[in-house]
Amino acid sequence: MNVKLAIKSIVFLLTLIMACSQWVYAQDEDEEDSAVKAKPIYIPLKPPFVVNYGGKGRLKYLKAELSVRVASNIEASYVRHHMPMIRNNIVLLFSRQNDEDIDTQEGKELLRQAALEEIKLIIAEEQGEDTREGIVDLYFNNFVIQK
Q1: What is the side-by-side strand order in the sheet with 135-146?
Q2: Cβ contacts of residue 85 below 8 Å, gap of 6+?
Q3: What are phi and psi of 127, to 5 degrees?
Q4: Are 142 and 64 within 8 A, CB to CB?
Q5: Which of 37, 96, 116, 141 has the most crowded Cβ, counting Cβ within 10 A?
Q6: What is the pLDDT of residues 90-134, one digit of tens each?
Q7: What's the Rg (C-alpha) of the chain?
Q8: What is the pLDDT averaged over residues 77-94?
Q9: Are 39 and 106 in contact (CB under 8 A)?
Q10: What is the C-alpha to C-alpha distance for residues 64 and 41, in angstroms, rounded to an integer?
């Protein structure tokens, strides 16, 4: 009778150990998923961009406040480090625009995408091609034009 009790105890303990190990394994997966899904980092490009645009004729102004979303602190440091070049290239991009380019919602979206690509290009050239994916998105916090 003691043998049966011992076997039952061993089976019970093994079942308990297996159940606990699955629970711990599930917790490890959740921790890894939360580590991979890190909170986004937003970097405001301050001060706001104020440029004249449209070429010859009456002066027209564009004011835009931008923020860049990056995947990690490493990309955030790259953006901060190369901020002078980023600002320069975005000023040049904005000043090349026409009324037709920025009057519509589609035109503003194309301008936003062009500015994002400009930032990705700068970071890729300066830090290496593998850093492109770390620059996630670019947002207009404010966009005002004066004709």
Answers
A1: 41-53, 60-70, 135-146
A2: 122, 126
A3: -115, -15
A4: yes
A5: 116
A6: 999 999 999 988 999 999 999 999 999 999 999 999 998 888 899
A7: 27
A8: 97
A9: no
A10: 20
Query: DSSP labels for the chain?
Result: -HHHHHHHHHHHHHHHHHHHHHHHHHHHHHHHHHHHSPPPEEEEEEEEEEEEESSSSS-EEEEEEEEEEESSHHHHHHHHHTHHHHHHHHHHHHHT--HHHHSSHHHHHHHHHHHHHHHHHHHHHHH-GGGGGGEEEEEEEEEEEE-
Considering the entire predicted model, what is its pTM?
A: 0.74
What is d(CA 30, CA 60) in angstroms, rounded to the nearest whole number?
53
State the CATH architecture for 41-146: 2-Layer Sandwich (3.30)
Q: Rounded to an integer, what distance in angstroms lies between the CA atom of residue 61 and that of residue 2?
A: 92
Q: Which amino acid is at 81?
A: H
- For residue 109, give the amino acid letter: E
- 80: closest CA among 39, 121, 46, 114? 46
Is-contact 28 42, C-beta < 8 A? no
